Amino acid sequence: MTAPHASDRMVATYRLSRVDLDAATETAIAIAREQTLEVPPGVAEPDMEAALLGRVEEVVRAHEDAFDATISYTLAVTGTDLLQLINVAYGNVSLMNGVRLVDLVLPAPALDALPGPKFGIDGLREMTGVAPGRPLLSVAIKPVGRSATELAALAATFARGGAHVVKDDHGLVDQPSAPFRERVRAVAQAVAESNAATGGRCAYFPNVTGPVDTLDERLDYSIAAGSTGVTVCPSLMGLDVMRAIAGGPHRLAILAHPTHGQAAPDRHEGIAPEVLYGTLYRVAGADAVVYVNAGGRFSWPVETCEAISHRLRTPLGRHRAAMPVPAGGVEAAEGARWLARYGPDTMLLIGGSLLRQPDLLGATRRLAEAVGEACASGARA
Amino acid sequence: MTAPHASDRMVATYRLSRVDLDAATETAIAIAREQTLEVPPGVAEPDMEAALLGRVEEVVRAHEDAFDATISYTLAVTGTDLLQLINVAYGNVSLMNGVRLVDLVLPAPALDALPGPKFGIDGLREMTGVAPGRPLLSVAIKPVGRSATELAALAATFARGGAHVVKDDHGLVDQPSAPFRERVRAVAQAVAESNAATGGRCAYFPNVTGPVDTLDERLDYSIAAGSTGVTVCPSLMGLDVMRAIAGGPHRLAILAHPTHGQAAPDRHEGIAPEVLYGTLYRVAGADAVVYVNAGGRFSWPVETCEAISHRLRTPLGRHRAAMPVPAGGVEAAEGARWLARYGPDTMLLIGGSLLRQPDLLGATRRLAEAVGEACASGARA
Fold this sequence. Notes:
Two copies of one chain form a homodimer.
Chain A: E1 10-17, H1 21-34, H2 46-52, E2 55-63, E3 66-73, H3 75-78, H4 82-90, E4 99-105, H5 108-113, H6 120-128, E5 136-141, H7 148-161, E6 165-168, H8 180-198, E7 203-205, H9 215-225, E8 229-232, H10 234-237, H11 239-247, E9 253-256, E10 270-271, H12 273-283, E11 288-292, H13 302-313, E12 323-327, H14 335-342, E13 347-350, H15 352-355, H16 360-373
Parallel strand pairs in A: 4-10, 5-6, 5-13, 6-7, 8-9, 9-11, 11-12
Antiparallel strand pairs in A: 1-3, 1-4, 2-3
């Protein structure tokens, strides 16, 4: 940075692709105007332009035909509401090709105003009784098409096998095969009975993604059924919907699922995954963030996964650290190796590869043991 | 299509880039699984797989190294809720590179269940008193930084000059320079007074984008101030938030703004603009949809604009036609030419280029006249 940023300015970095330095500089100036005053030069008075236009802080070469433009924005334009912060950081310019949001530093007053995780890593450990130094294991119940009874039986097996969190698959909503209330009641009861039998503290996080005007009913119902957390798809429902849950009266941890995030490494547009899942999901209130692990079905590089984990756990204003949840086709057999790499403040999410095992209870037990030992001294082979 | 689709299946077409036919076919099969059962082969019973997996209908070459894969999905998985439809059409696969959603045909029961436009083109004509055959003119009041009084003065000038709709810029939210209530009260009053003076029926659509948990208050306040419509940013707030407004009790037209849509032509990923703005925004309840016009600041091709307009106006189940609103740096002087091309069922949106005029009232009057005549016999030069 050429100048120190006042902490009340939002600082966004855009990667501008397929341009030379002149074109990148011109684009940066255009972005600074587009995202703030959005009127041609001469419409606003010079002092308004000076006060309110985005300020191009620097334009530096990122690689051969790409430049990183860093632009800061005044609080007078961004305010502290989540949606306006996103609107200024990546609103209209999301419609331009060759403009990618690769970094975002929120202004201090916004960090103060946004809810962040209500539980965070420490709260999830307390909820599930997993001591510091040991990773957590979560499992997804699925597929769609199974009845509430069948899903409850799966959940019971997972809970008895030692999973710390059982979550609904993000594709389970309110289908006739397992309607929301019937499913939540059956699964919550199955998990509670397993806990009673084992003395464990497995938590069940139903998927509350669905119509926003009935969301409160699903949150209320989840609490009444005994859940201490829920699964939310923020990029589908809207990030501010998650913010409202986190900032609202329901005492529920939030496991955020990445579906419809439209984010992936190596694109020329969109929001870099670490910014969306590592920064925005966290400040918007996710206690745990599911992301696409390397080596799974989506071929994301491990560096992206590590960048997301880093942003979820690094100090950020007054906010609790959020739990990284690598997922997306992680082979159960490989889980411990990934945890050794990512460190103990990680929750592994396993779905399909576990469901494939003929002895599901035995496989869950072995996996839970491996997860528990993954970060023990000497395990980082 | 190799087989006729039952109308209760959702049909999505994905453009798969940088692949050969074998890789495209393999990816299509993977998408059909990822978006439905999301478990490896062998976990679900064969009859569940047959009933619930997405069905690859065809894979055809789109151009040299891209193929279009058409996949249909059963209602048993998609249901009729907007978010689950989007989740199945473009959920997890939005995290894969090289997979773009280029077409979407919704199942008939979903079309029936979704609200669609409450007013549509005909309702907006009735509201503003603009006869069929004549395009509409809307103008944005801005920039952020102006006081409520200053914005109200602008709105009064536009209303007196003959604009049919005055809208808040999408960047005007609740900043201290013009807080929401102060602004809405002042602007609504200014527009009402102008209407009283001219006998016109200019409508004012305040921007209600902001925290979802206080949205109802802003809708109530807009109605109390006399507004008959609002400006909404669905891709920021969440498409289902717009759906809830359209399906709810507030009698307000919705002007949808495209910010944060992350859609543009010629990308290898994301949702094609005509699908997002032409189909999804419409079924979710937009009465008018702002999009980036060709020749403006965003360099979208005119074919994309025409495709959006077509989808907004073409017959679609029981739904009203929605009004296309080309915008984004349209020069006032060019407006009539664009309208002649797009046809009379179009609302031009002008912002900055009008604000630059020294005689704002005169310029608005000339523009309103040109818009009114744009599609008259002989104007299609």
